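Sequence, C-alpha cells quoted for completeness.
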Amino acid sequence: SYRGSSTRGRTFRTNMLIQDVDRNKAYQDMLTYVSDNGWKIGLTNKERGVISAEKDEHEKKPTRLDLDLSNHSKMNTVTVTMAHKAYGEAALNVERVKEEFCDIAELLAKQ
C-alpha cells in the first residue's frame, strides 16, 4: 500500500511473514543487501531488528528505506516490515519499489 504524493513524498509499506529463517542471519542479509544496493545506512539496531537507510534520488529530499525484522510467535519465523519513502520521479516508480521489496523477501526466503 502507499500514501502521499510525489511532491510531498509517497510512502510505500508492506510486511511479510517468512518461515524457516534464522533472525540473526536474516538481519545480516538485509544489512548486506541495503549496503550493496547503493543505500547509505543511517541507523541500525540488531537487537531491535531495525535498519534505516537513504539514497539521493531527488534534488531536495533523499529516498528513505526503513526495515524492521521481528520474531514471530512461531519458531524460526520472522515478520519483515518495510517502508520506502520517495519524492518526485522516484515516488512515481511503483514497479521499482515492488521489485526492491520482492528482492529482499526472496533473499530472506532462500536461507
Q: What stands out?
A: The CA atoms of residues 59 and 83 lie 21 Å apart. The mean pLDDT is 88. DSSP finds three helices and six strands in the chain. The first helix runs from residue 23 to 36.
